[in-house]
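INFO worker-7 received task bundle
INFO bundle size: 2
INFO processing item 0
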Amino acid sequence: QTSATRPFLNRIINGAMVISQAQAGASTTALDSYPVDRFKYEASQTSKLTWQQNAGSVTPPAGFTNYLGATSSSAYSITSSDFFIITQRIEGFNIADLDWGTANAKTVTLSFWVRSSLTGTFGGVFSNSAGNRSYPFTYTISAANTWEQKSVTIAGDTTGTWLTNNGSGITLRFGLGVGSTFSGTAGAWAGSALFSATGATSVVGTNGATFYLTGVQLEVGSTATSFDYRSYGTELALCQRYFELITDVTGQNAAFCDVYSNGANLASLTLTYKATKRAAPTAAVVGSFSTSNTSGSLNLQAGVQNFIAFYSVAGAGRVYWFNNANSGFSFSAEL
């Protein structure tokens, strides 16, 4: 079955790693960054992994054009409290039908394509927002530098609290090096915060090691089905619920907007997002942003459907916002 017969079959957003709004395909080592949309890099140490969409320029598995790649920057020996993970938090509204935390909890299957320069047992975990229910899992990479498809089936949790609102419903993590404090026995639910399975391979333990991932799918049932492709526009809109850029993509230093200050010496601009946000987002200026009145100050007020930019000026008059070489605004409502 596909999404035509089972709407929103895949609960993962951007599982084919197609959308990269914040990074635009560039590499990053920053903690808490999104090398591709909806997949967040979280770690206990800086400068140990470099992430990039299509890192290493290898050929993706058949049917895919993009992947997410990580490269180890050194041979780092992890401590008990270390963790290096790539995470997607699935909104509660999108997993409400799974009935996790009840006697009717549904079984789900995770499938994905993975490629690494290392072989052996690798780990990941499912957990709730409170971090007091975790299910570590393992999978085996048999051949180095070869795309392999994996699937993991788990019985849904019949206990614990699993959010079904706009909070974090289910958190999926892939471990690239996790210490004993955050590792647990694979194949069983645990009442603690875990990030991977005990004994899993540490990618950060080998200098130059690579880990590539694509085709990530989470679906109801005990069998992995073919990847649920959505149109690019649909996938982008799903991503924009959590993060959106409003910029001048021409890079021509064109006027971003043209407003007139009223008698209260306040110029304002209201723009509507392309997608309603999960929650009121954090707004920020991106790049080199300027206005025609340099003596004023900018204040951004962001709601779930639109945002207002207020610019205080010294007297009434016309104010131009200039968008310099792809600069503009970003809005994050990530989980």
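INFO item 0 finished
INFO processing item 1
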Amino acid sequence: MLSKKELEIQVLCEEFYKAISQFQSVITFNKKVDVKNIEAAISMLERDYPEIFWLDGYSVRYNNDFAEVTFKIINNYKADALKKMSAAMYQKVKAIVKTANKPTAYDKILTVHDYLVAHTVYDKPKTAGRSLRHTAYGCLVEGKAVCEGYSRAFQLLMKPLKIECGMCSGIAKKEKHGWNYVKLGLNYYWIDVTWDDPVYQKKSSGFEKWTQHNYFLINDEMLFRTRKLDKDNPFVPSCRSVKDNYFVKNKLFFKDYKFSEIDKLLTAHVKDGRIEMMFQSKRDLQNAVKDLFDKKNFWNAKIFESKNGRKGGSVNYQTDEDLYILRIMFKINA
């Protein structure tokens, strides 16, 4: 049950949302309003309503029987422009949700994740301050975003799919970063769409065209190998399960390294020319690389067998030292 203060904050947030949804930038209260409650309500608004993409700060005037909140609008857009932009964003949301209307929640989440990775370019603004790159609009309509934009877009798309989703922030590899959590069944999971976008891959390596799922439905232990949470996150779920993790669900997760398991994967995916797997420990990942490539055991796989000896080919591999993932791309000589 909400306390009196929590209820007041929630009501304030709803009033802000109602007014801002009508593209009002000045909201007046002809009564005494606690400024701290205003701050908390706006924080709630920014957290829970990613569709409100145009806010860029605010100021408050108040006395004992009056309060006025003036919102700064990103890029000084006028109401008419914002209406058109909002309509364009919702049109995009509708189209994506239609493609993501799958039988299971897992497949809905996977479809949205893969869409955002395929249709968004990580694009850091050249100037400081908030821009459309930080918003769901920037991600969905312009196809350009930073981590906050990816996360807000993902959160927005989960709403019509009726999947509980939120955003958390922290420091990841010495930089500010934002990502999402989702609830699937009874379990919460972390998901980082931004870091699954292979923006740092060398072009023509082949790996830049490979949709990654390193951070798709991972648990606390996996996530916190690479980041620390900000202390002011209002809700941090406990993510303990790996039941629906991409690699676990697709039987690509190995507790230890065995050449026989890799051999089976290569045979099963010989037409694809690529395989991937996640190991339980960094040591097993290192053992796999050492055995397959340093010792060249990779070429002893069944796919290279022939009546006239062993076929050769080409191979390229990539590792993720944080998530203990190995990706292999290969070709077999004719």
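INFO item 1 finished
INFO post-check item 1: The CA atoms of residues 289 and 330 lie 15 Å apart.
INFO post-check item 1: The longest strand covers residues 175-184.
INFO worker-7 idle
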